[in-house]
Amino acid sequence: MDALLHQFFNLDIMARALPLVLQGLQQTVLLCLIVIPLGLIGGLIFALASLSSSLSVRWGMIVAIDFFRAVPPLVLLIFIYSGLPFAGIRLSPLAAVALAFFLNTSSYYGEIYRAGIESVGRGQWDAARSTGLSAFHTLASVVLPQAIRNVLPDLVSNTVEVVKLTSIASVVALPELLYSADMARSLTFNASPIVLAAAIYLVMLWPVVRLISRLERRMAS
Amino acid sequence: MNAFLETFFKPNLIAQYLPSILRGVVTTIEIAFAVVVTGLVLGLLLAIIRSFQIKPVNALIVIFVDMFRALPPLVIVLLVYFGLPNVGISIPSFAVLWLVLSLVLAAFAEEIFWAGILSVPKGQWEAARSTGLTFLATLGYIVLPQAVRLTVPPITNRTVAITKNTALGMVIGVPEILNQATSAQSFSGNATPLMMGALAYIVLFIPVVALGRFLETRFAWRRG
After folding, report:
1. pTM of structure
2. Which of A177, A211, B137, B218 measures 20 to 30 Å from A80, CA to CA?
3. Average pLDDT of chain A?
4. CA distance, residue A114 to nearest chain B CA (Å)
5. Judging by beta carbons within 10 Å of its beta carbon (0-12, 13-18, 19+), is residue B133 exposed, middle or buried?
């Protein structure tokens, strides 16, 4: 029991690791501020393309989305970070992470938006267009607000997944939360810094996970 | 074009590293299969236990589920892999990966199965119980068949997403596809093995992703 406490909940070591871990947290927050908006915007573009009236655009997009949903994000990231340099394309860890996340999360967000847009009846489009609204206006002021409301729990839940996914940036040595905690672990030979990082993830994400459960239950009833 | 082929599809490297990539494919399939079975069975079991509505037990289930939904899998993997040996418990890396991913899948599956159970109207419970069926018989013959049907698409998608995390095994040295591909890449100084690894994942997972898409349209959640 003592060994367990010493190994996982060593307050001394946590206190020493705290500054490094907080630096990592700052990077994680920064990373989220880059990749979440990128995914939300990319997803909308992916969704609109996958609903395009042109058959080739529609199918091309659906194949691309399934492709990026089939490749594990870590594989995509490593391919971009350490495979592309062989072809002369050398990206910094941050740029590689941003590109990999853009492709992966836009595909997931795209599918969610698409389900939302499809849940809004066709009649709404026709009615809005017949009152003289432009296609863009119909989408932005009539269809999307309802679509987003219908899939809000899925959008929030995918955002939690994106925040969790930022932890794989540690593999390409981007000094985010997990990377800093693991660095502290290897310096102290003690797992407490990772427990500290886990606690930080929990504090950030637990309330959101609770919120998702509540939203989902409200949608179901 | 030739330079591109030399970098990503070099024939002699493909021949040389195909066996090790295929060994990685076998490892990935083994772990993925074990994770899917353990995770889904455990998740369903937890959802069934939850339906007995024993307050302290349910609180524990919710805490377990929330924790494993909120923590990044890689954090749990590193915690278990580097933490446990120091307290005298040493388990092989593939077992760490299997255990962690199974628990993560169980947490998500419990939540989905539970939502499915809740979606069956109360009247069905009452009607079944009033005909003399026991609680378990009602759950097994009336509620679960309807609940599970509703949960097929979300469970499929979630299972695919979590199974893909077997690639995290690379970080702790499990000899799965990505691990084989990255070590072959550093031996050969060429991106061909990495391309082979990525293609292996696509061949493995595109069919299940497409299946998920098909199921989504077949069994779509009906929303008001």
Report:
1. 0.91
2. A177
3. 92
4. 12
5. middle
